[in-house]
Here is the input.
Amino acid sequence: MEPKLINGNSHSDQRGTLLYNNEFDASMVKRIYIIENESPEFIRGWQGHQIEQRWFSVVSGKFKIQLIKIDNWETPSLDLENFTYLIDSEKLNVLHVPKGYVSSIQSLEFNSKLLVMADYLLGEIQDEYRYDIDYFKI
Here is the structure.
């Protein structure tokens, strides 16, 4: 399965603005948290899961999210395909990251906040993999 951007939308009138995503099914989400990088220069990565899947949605600001499907969790190939997404808080878009991917997350503006949703509770499984930020040839 490949990552998928689930497009949200917005509606504005005299009362204000409503952001919505009627296509996102949140029934598998068990845990949520927010990532706020210290600065746009910092890149949080590469981290991922063999079993867990995640969904990302920008609460404020903009993010660049890169995803790589891992071929071998002990020694991944260095030149794997990279999926790049630019997402912002203008619409309630949700990026689905299937199991088997690692991510790098970079805010593109100060004070950007990324909502992360996962289908396992913290500590429910041992499924976290990390690789050096310079490991993959991007």
